[in-house]
């Protein structure tokens, strides 16, 4: 996962989804994206393992304004947010569980 450019997301920009108490994993997906399904499983597992971490999945096609604002060019794209909603890490493609856990270390 790469270090993200500055940015902040709140529940208002995430379709009303609440941020995690400690961190949030935001996944941009599309309907026919096979790696998105595997990414969903990995992020759900990590969120279940780490207290205070939430997983929010955003349909990229339904949120084109947000996709453009954040420069999302492919799915899956995963953003790691700290408790305040600041983007601390960003990755495209299907992540490995170990990489997601390591990236969370920068948010916690």
How do you describe this structure in short?
The chain contains three helices and five strands, in the order E-E-H-E-H-E-E-H. By secondary structure, the protein is of the alpha+beta class. The protein is globular and about 30 Å long.
Task: Based on the model shown, name its key terms.
5-stranded mixed β-sheet; single chain; 108 residues; alpha+beta; 5 strands; 29% helix
What would you note in describing this structure?
It is a single chain. The protein has helices spanning 34-49, 64-70, 97-104; strands spanning 2-3, 23-29, 53-59, 77-82, 87-92. Strand 4 and strand 5 (87-92) form a beta hairpin. Strands 1-5-4-2-3 form a five-stranded mixed beta sheet, with helices on one face. The chain has 108 residues and is of the alpha+beta class. The radius of gyration is 12 Å and the shape is globular. It starts with a strand and ends with a helix. Helix content is 29%, strand content 26%. The protein is built from three helices and five strands, in the order E-E-H-E-H-E-E-H.
List the helices and strands and how they pair.
Blueprint: E1 2-3, E2 23-29, H1 34-49, E3 53-59, H2 64-70, E4 77-82, E5 87-92, H3 97-104
Parallel strand pairs: 2-3
Antiparallel strand pairs: 1-5, 2-4, 4-5
- Tally the helices: what do you get? 3
**Could you estimate the helical fraction of the residues in percent?**
25-40%
Low-confidence stretches: none
| Major beta-sheet overview | 5 strands, mixed
- Count the beta strands: 5
SSE series: EEHEHEEH
Q: Using the CA coordinates, give the radius of gyration.
A: 12 Å
N/C terminus separation: 16 Å
> Hey, roughly how much beta strand do the residues contain?
25-35%
- Average pLDDT for all residues: 91
Lateral strand order in the biggest sheet = 1-5-4-2-3
């Amino acid at each position: 996962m790469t270090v993200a450019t500055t940015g902040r997301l709140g529940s208002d920009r995430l379709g009303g989804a609440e941020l995690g108490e400690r961190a949030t994993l935001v996944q941009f997906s599309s309907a026919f994206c096979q790696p998105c399904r595997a990414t969903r499983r990995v992020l759900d597992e990590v969120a279940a393992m780490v207290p205070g971490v939430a997983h929010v999945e955003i349909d990229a096609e339904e949120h084109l304004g947000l996709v453009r604002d954040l420069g999302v060019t492919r799915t899956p794209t995963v953003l790691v947010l700290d408790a305040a909603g600041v983007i601390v890490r960003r990755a495209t493609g299907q992540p490995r569980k170990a990489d997601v856990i390591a990236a969370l270390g920068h948010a916690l």
